Amino acid sequence: MTASAIGGRTLRLDWGTTYQVTVFDLGLACCGVEVMAALQDPRPDLEALGVTPAGGPDEAHVLVVSGTVTDVMLPAVIATYQRMPEPRYVLSVGACSNTGGPYWDSYSVTKGVDQVLPVHVAVPGCPPRPEALLEGLVALHRLVTGQERG
Ligand code: SF4
């Protein structure tokens, strides 16, 4: 079990079968750069929460979809999810991934990755701040463990 502080509160996170959760970022546009920066920069807060970047989807239990999802990319997005071992969760990061964002009326943009994948947590923003990724992971953890918010 690990502990970290967010928003002045102390959190204790236990991901169930392991002290760490592996996260794979499918960065498709600008939001992907933000997530990459958050995951690749050694962040004590992420490490304290037990978050480890995965080398590929085969070793990840959380898929972060960040950036503009285009219809032509959908087969690759679905294939990435299907390569992940169970249990697997999806964190949608940013307006584009959530709804199509600024490109919602484009003929080529998917109006939310939840149309093809089971999104467990959606993080708003264009782009969200790195701290929002952290809060999204905490929200996902609460969902997985059935903890009450507070
Ligand atoms: S939500 Fe904004 S920052 Fe993120 S991918 Fe779309 S346009 Fe870029």
3D structure, described in words:
- With 150 residues, the protein is of the alpha/beta class.
- The chain has one domain: Rossmann fold (3-Layer(aba) Sandwich).
- Helices cover 31% and strands 22% of the residues.
- The protein is built from five helices and seven strands; from the N terminus they run E-E-E-H-H-E-E-H-E-H-E-H.
- The strands form two sheets. The protein has a five-stranded parallel sheet, with helices on both faces. The protein has a two-stranded antiparallel ribbon with strand order 1-2.
- Strand 1 and strand 2 form a beta hairpin.
- The longest helix has 16 residues.
- The N terminus is likely disordered.
- The structure holds iron/sulfur cluster (SF4).
Mean pLDDT reading: 85
What gap, in angstroms, lies between the N and C termini?
19 Å
User: What is the H/E string?
Assistant: EEEHHEEHEHEH
Q: Tell me the strand percentage band.
A: 15-25%
User: How many strand elements?
Assistant: 7
Instruction: Report the CATH architecture.
Output: 3-Layer(aba) Sandwich
The unique ligands bound to this protein are: iron/sulfur cluster
Give short descriptive properties of this protein.
single chain; 150 residues; alpha/beta; Rossmann fold; 5-stranded parallel sheet; two-stranded antiparallel sheet; 5 helices; 22% strand; disordered N terminus; binds iron/sulfur cluster; iron; translocase; NADH_UbQ_OxRdtase-like_20kDa; membrane
